[in-house]
Amino acid sequence: MILWSLWCLAVAEAVCGRLLGIPTVPFNTSGSGSYSLSGVVNMVVDGKYAATTDTRGSTLIPPTLGDFAKTFVEDLKAITQQEQLSLVNSNDGSAAAEPSIRLTLGNAADYLDAAGRETSEGYTLDVSSSGINITGASRLGVWWGTRTVLQQVILNNGSIPYGTAKDSPGWPTRGMMLDVGRHYYPPDFIIEMCAYMSFFKQNTFHLHLSDNLYNNPRYSRQQSLSLYARFRLWTDAADVAGLNKYKNESFTREEFERIQTSCAARGVTILPEIEAPGHALPIVQWKPELGLSTDLSLLNISHPQTISTVKTIWKTFLPWFHSKVVHIGADEYTASVTDYNRFVNELASFITSESSKMTRIWGTFPPKPSYPNNISKNVTIQHWAFFEDNPYNDYIKNNYSVLNSDDTFYVVNKYSASYPQSLPYNKTFTGNPANNGLWYPHIFDTKNAGNNPPRDNPLVLGSIAPLWNDYGPNASVYSDAYYAWKFGIPAMSDKQWGADLGINEFMPLFDKLHPKIPGQNLERRVASKGEFILQYTFDQPGNSTAVKDLSGNGYDGNTTCARTASGSLAMDGKCALFIPLGSKGKTYTMTLTLTISNVSDPTNATLMFGRDSNLLLTPAITLLSGGTYYRTEQSLPLAAQGQVDGGMASKMEIPIGEKVQLLMYARYDRTQVQPMWDGGQGGQEPFYTVLGINGESTRTAYIDVEAPLERVGGPGSGWAGEVYGLDLLDHA
Ligand SMILES: *[C@@H]1O[C@H](CO)[C@@H](O)[C@H](O)[C@H]1NC(C)=O
Ligand SMILES: *[C@@H]1O[C@H](CO)[C@@H](O)[C@H](O)[C@H]1NC(C)=O
Ligand SMILES: *[C@@H]1O[C@H](CO)[C@@H](O)[C@H](O)[C@H]1NC(C)=O
Ligand SMILES: *[C@@H]1O[C@H](CO)[C@@H](O)[C@H](O)[C@H]1NC(C)=O
Ligand SMILES: *[C@@H]1O[C@H](CO)[C@@H](O)[C@H](O)[C@H]1NC(C)=O
Ligand SMILES: *[C@@H]1O[C@H](CO)[C@@H](O)[C@H](O)[C@H]1NC(C)=O
Ligand SMILES: *[C@@H]1O[C@H](CO)[C@@H](O)[C@H](O)[C@H]1NC(C)=O
Ligand SMILES: *[C@@H]1O[C@H](CO)[C@@H](O)[C@H](O)[C@H]1NC(C)=O
Ligand SMILES: *[C@@H]1O[C@H](CO)[C@@H](O)[C@H](O)[C@H]1NC(C)=O
Ligand SMILES: *[C@@H]1O[C@H](CO)[C@@H](O)[C@H](O)[C@H]1NC(C)=O
Ligand SMILES: *[C@@H]1O[C@H](CO)[C@@H](O)[C@H](O)[C@H]1NC(C)=O
Ligand SMILES: *[C@@H]1O[C@H](CO)[C@@H](O)[C@H](O)[C@H]1NC(C)=O
């Protein structure tokens, strides 16, 4: 007994009874050894299940066990640098002679959720001197087991204590919701977010695919009809021609397919939402006759074409969707409840008859004795605010299934009068009103325990935490959505799974795991041996097209420009300097030394192009990211609104014919530029954005943008001159 507990203390990361991880894993050690993955050469997949799939999860495109195993091998290689690892199919399910990782399926009845029901997402991990066996209740269960192995490998320097874990999630729906309606996000961002979520065993990414900015009652009809409103799916189908006018900010079917497949490959189901009959300006801007005359962002359900139009939209896009549940929105409707309930029920039965899918809505009009009709109990409810409904009393006690999206965990990008700008993750450790302890998905109300059903209530589906873009596309860059959730996703995922990580255990674990999360580089990190990530100068003799990186990191570039006798590249508006990095996230310091001799594009001359941003030099120093131009205080958009003195930003215009240095610093909350042509006197100027607040006012906010590191100059750059050097430091 004493020896055993000494052993528990000795294993730094394994506390007796559980493995520390995010989520934590119930674990019993056996003996005092541990298995080191440094010797493992084979990953053995049980041939009985390698090429087939499950139908039990929430996706209709589930990977095979072999598919999951392949991704696991790639992840393990990336984390351990163990190139010799190979994937073997074993037809009789038996082990190879040498120690191996073996993946197989077991009995689903062995794994129970918080309500005591069988769950297909459970798994067992057996670790012994013969290797590691992962036995899943389903293929997805095996996948979650592989996440445990990866985390333990990272935390314990490649080894896992001998013993057994038997682990299963408490709730079937665990994840996040992103408002891609009021802000576009590129497919790769969404796919990388899925990789981040999956590492912590979240299984659902809900995408809110259509919405509009707040339709202020004082807007004229014309203003409402031109307000920012987007529908993000793009098709050439004639039935919905005109619904979406913004192809460059949309997902084509191929892109949406790639998003869904890539996320499913990591166990994450994309749950699509098309919003109506509220937040429906994208539909009303297409067919203005369908809007309520009193508020054009709401559909007039009694108009004979309304329900059939929304059905046409769903008929068009249902074949795109590979989830068993789809979301029809249905929140914040303020007109007739009878019409609303009819709308939801008609859509729900239409969707089921077209596709066999189930329907979800936001909690809006809970059932009441006075109503002539109620929402069908086949429709699941996503509760979001107690001023809309009481999820336990109104819905669960009436036998509706409810998903917990309580606004306790709401995030609004950049600014909100009501909600924080990053997920208040500590509430996941303290949000249980009964004991100020750990929060779980059955806790809708973090202040009043009486509003929460027992933990084992089977009508609680799980939890989804949303991020909203109330103030539109210019309020934030893509990566702001990630940074808002950086800590929130792991902290929430532990509780969504039903695990028991404590507040003081979280950060040390997160700090170790975070740098190694596979399948994503959301922070645009660039590995570097020292503080200089990249150093280019052009004073070597000859006209070589190769550009040596002097930092020692080997990020050599190349150029199509000639070298000058004065040690520079001759930029002619066509030739370019190519950099093999693409982008660098905060923090960084970038220094570009150059002379501009001629500008041919007075509004759009571009110094540098990158994966996430461009750096423009006209009309003044400007960053372009996600389709929005960001300038410093002295640039046009602010001055034009009479908010800032100074008019045009002469300081931010690079003087022609002078050799100058341009410095950019990205700190944690802002990117700044320091023009050195005035001797750096002016100091560092932050880039700003101007947010429109519901048509009532504006606010400024800092913006933080990745460094553009694909090329300097080249076609479309609109300027000529010389480039003397480019440096990138890994701090600011
Ligand atoms: C792992 O599975 C192999 C093959 O079925 C078996 O021989 C071995 O005993 C198992 N190891 C553990 C620790 O369960
Ligand atoms: C981690 O493991 C490697 C190889 O297995 C070993 O060389 C190294 O010393 C270990 N590091 C620590 C901190 O234990
Ligand atoms: C650990 O052992 C206890 C006591 O035998 C048992 O109740 C529990 O189910 C075991 N847990 C795991 C993960 O094997
Ligand atoms: C809704 O549509 C009906 C039928 O077209 C029409 O009579 C009614 O005036 C409309 N209501 C509003 C508020 O727009
Ligand atoms: C609607 O739900 C309420 C509350 O459960 C119930 O009292 C009422 O009878 C229902 N109405 C109809 C038409 O089913
Ligand atoms: C609920 O769904 C089931 C199965 O899909 C179906 O048989 C039933 O008619 C639906 N009920 C309602 C009220 O829509
Ligand atoms: C809820 O469902 C249970 C079991 O199906 C049933 O016994 C109960 O009467 C239902 N309650 C309500 C309010 O519909
Ligand atoms: C969360 O709680 C921990 C432990 O009390 C504390 O150190 C940390 O600063 C808190 N984080 C935030 C964002 O409040
Ligand atoms: C590089 O090429 C340019 C244009 O062909 C030429 O003018 C220049 O002298 C060359 N420089 C060197 C160092 O060879
Ligand atoms: C130049 O570098 C880019 C990456 O920055 C690379 O894609 C391209 O193939 C290189 N071109 C040549 C000719 O080496
Ligand atoms: C899409 O194109 C429009 C029109 O050129 C532009 O204003 C917008 O910024 C672009 N969107 C993105 C995300 O690049
Ligand atoms: C600005 O230049 C870039 C690069 O050539 C080009 O893609 C973009 O369309 C231009 N934008 C405008 C508004 O002219």
TrEMBL record:
Signal peptide per UniProt: 1-17
Pfam assignment, any one: Glyco_hydro_20
Taxonomic superkingdom: Eukaryota
Tagged with keyword Signal: yes
EC number: 3.2.1.52
Keyword Signal: yes
Residues covered by the Glycoside hydrolase family 20 catalytic domain: 173-338
UniProt GO MF annotations: beta-N-acetylhexosaminidase activity
GO biological process, one term: carbohydrate metabolic process
Domain Beta-hexosaminidase bacterial type N-terminal positions: 74-167
SUPFAM superfamilies, A to Z: (Trans)glycosidases, beta-N-acetylhexosaminidase-like domain
Active site: E332
Top EC class for this record: hydrolase
Catalytic activity: Hydrolysis of terminal non-reducing N-acetyl-D-hexosamine residues in N-acetyl-beta-D-hexosaminides
Keywords assigned by UniProt, alphabetized: Glycosidase, Hydrolase, Signal
Alphabetized PANTHER family for the sequence: BETA-N-ACETYLHEXOSAMINIDASE (PTHR43678:SF1), PUTATIVE (AFU_ORTHOLOGUE AFUA_2G00640)-RELATED (PTHR43678)
Family, similarity comment: Belongs to the glycosyl hydrolase 20 family.
Name of the protein: beta-N-acetylhexosaminidase
Species: Zopfia rhizophila CBS 207.26
